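note to self — DONT lose this again. spent like an hour looking for the file last time. sequence + predicted structure for the chain T wanted, 83 res
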Amino acid sequence: MMSATSTLAMTHFVTLADSFDKDKVTPGVLGFIVFAVIGGAVWLLMKSMNKHMKKVDFAEQPEDGEPGADAPAGSTAAGSKTG
């Protein structure tokens, strides 16, 4: 059951909907503003990501002092050679 307020609101929305040209649908100024804000946010995020990616050091070999930095298989300890 609809209240008097919702019925009145529906009649106003229906009359507003009839006043628009049904062959022309555009997002308008609000759509442009939302799109521009999203584009700006993506640009700022990409700029921040690039700055953080430049700080990353992609070292393939662990340094000597780090835990888990075991000598590779087949190498001798402290560089001593036998033979």
